[in-house]
User: Fold this.
Amino acid sequence: MKRTLKHLLIAAACVAATSAHAAVNVLACEPEWEALTTELGGDKVKVSSATNALQDPHRIEARPSLIARTRNANLLVCTGLELEVGWLPVLIQQSGNSKIAAGQPGYFEAGAFVPRLDVPGKVDRSEGDVHAAGNPHIQQNPHNIALVSVALAKRLAELDPANAAYYQARQKDFAARWDAAMLKWEKQAAPLKGVAVVEHHKNMEYLMGWLGMHQVGTLEPKPGVEPSAAHLAELLSQLQRAPAKMVIRAAYQDGRASQWLSEHAKIPAVVLPFSVGGDDKSKDLFGLFDSTVQRLMDANK
Amino acid sequence: MLKHSVLAAALSAAVAAPQAYAADKKEQKELAAIRAEIREMKAAYEARLQAMEQRLQQAQSDSAAAKAQLATISGGAPSAGAGSPATSGAGAPAAAVATSATPATTASASAVATPVAPAVAAYVESPSAPVATASAGGANPASNLFNPNISMILGGTLQNLKQDPSQYRLQGFAPSGGEVGPGKRGFNLGESELTMAANIDPQFAGQLTFSLSGENEVSVEEAFIQTRAMENGLNIKAGRFLSAIGYLNGQHAHTWDFVDAPLAYQAFLGGQYKPDGVQAKWLAPLDQFLEIGAEAGSGAAFPGNDRNKNGAGAVSVFAHIGDDIGASSSYRAGLSYLHTAAEKRAYEDEGLTNNFSGKSNTWIADAIYKWAPNGNPTNTNFKLQGEYFRRKETGTLNYAVDTDAAASGDYRSVQSGWYLQGVYQFMPTWRAGLRYDRLSSGSPRIGLIDSGALAWANLPILQAYNPKRTSFMVDYSPSEFSRLRLQLARDQSRPGVTDNQIFLQYIMSLGTHAAHSF
Assistant:
């Protein structure tokens, strides 16, 4: 009996010891941050994403499984800027995990580290689902990913000082590869400069800003409001006067409105992966932009 | 300003000078008139100048305020310069984009023009990035930054009830005195809710919800504080709150999928159980969701009542488990137990007042299953939920209190009820749902009847019956903040009477509404 107890105690101590030395447990709100955390943290972090690329990050249920994962996380890596306002506060509150509450080192808000677009001067719900802190879909500009990577590596080092050098080295390596990739994408996408597009939701602003494309209309009459027949008809007549080159949407968005416009305005409908896992090629952040640029170029032919 | 006065003085002097030489009275008169005119002009001129200066000052302070607001929104720092991640991130042009919200094209130019490597190298992480404050503050003046978040719920119904609602009863169940029945006929203003919530300090957060009824009554729906800084999965709440027993009990009425509460909630909890007390919840450190908790309350809420007693008058314990099933489905299931007691819990029957004193124990089993293709509920999703209640009450029934016929005897009842509902969103913004309710009153053991002192005819409400109801609803939600609903129900809650009910309802949410739980 005594011996069993001793064994049990040793086992418990071992579990405690391993858990103390275990990797930083990261819960990313979106797959792009899961991918970036993997790039920077390697095998020193355990990371999963609360959402996948086929889900609308605005509309996620605060599911029990997500509450459980939030409870066990040492670090939340989220876009912020009110993108997750419909579900993340519930997860944080119900998790009983104060380490990852807003304002704590365990809460990393990527949106805080990048220049933001579409910051409204006036916030009113009659304008639809507006974000007071600016457009939150920042991952669509790779320069933003670069900025976030520096801050995230610092944060990982802060939470796990023993591996600080490791994270810094991986960040340096990532930044070098990323800079090269960005030059490649920018060269490849040069013909897209000045191209007019229609988008589903106002979630491509950072991408268009990066590549010099510009938006001439959205399928949603107002942010977060479903496309209506009347609005689409109006958009179509507008396009007949001032045509656009393509209509783009994210992988998680319903294709019907986009298809309708594509058929009637005779312009290609482009589905962009939007995040890691949004299509077969987007297995990581590099693949995400490879695929994005490729799809835009194909449609621009 | 000074220049203008000098000029005006010089002008008047120039006009005044020749006056000495003018002997003619008429001329003098004319001159006086001109002088007066000039004085008037001067006064008017100065007044206008002053007004313009004031306006200029106003404009300057306005633009300063606007700048400060923009800085708050975009970086949290009062000046858009030092420390703002945006500035140090991509150089000055990008910062200008962030603060002044220039159209995308300008942003693109600067983003592309800024070389990447230096941007990354020059990047300095700001020690604190108070974006949470910035987003919470929005464009408010600084003095309002600490005001609680305010949200409102407005609701109303138009009801067509075949049967007179004043006759409504759940046969076999002693009336709870709570929200039972379909409400009034015709137009009804629903409960308007006003919620204020904020963090109190690093340790606590608080929330107050008023409910304003259509009858102009104000009541405290919820008023609680809860811990923020507990670790290890602990959460503690104190005050008046929606108890975590069952599933629907913890959900605010405006999030319900039907206009009214299931019959089981009406019969066993008087609508919704909201104790005044404390709640502790603990979330297990597992990959699956496992939560256990306990509550201690005053016991004043139905099925208990106010008993003028120290300590806890009601205790409940609950456990919930939940997980995902693949990428598309998830569930939560739970078991709860509520132990309370009543002393002279009165109800009216046939013009007489009867009351019950004794113990009341309720078990609730609940489960909810949600499905959405790939976990994306935007287009279509489905929700199936059900709960089972079982309540045992033992004690004394006092018949016709305060009358000559008063009598007392043992009372023992075991009653149960359940509901099952499914709601399907078949296209964006449109949902349809079906709910079936059933209660089983059982036959209570009543000492006064067993002994022959009373007959069932003396206690008509307690006579055994199995009330049932079927409800169908369809609702339309143009946005997540508004909902319009049509509900049809066929209610057979008392023998021999079928009530066909039609409800038209609106529910709207205003302000910074808190996120909904699963």
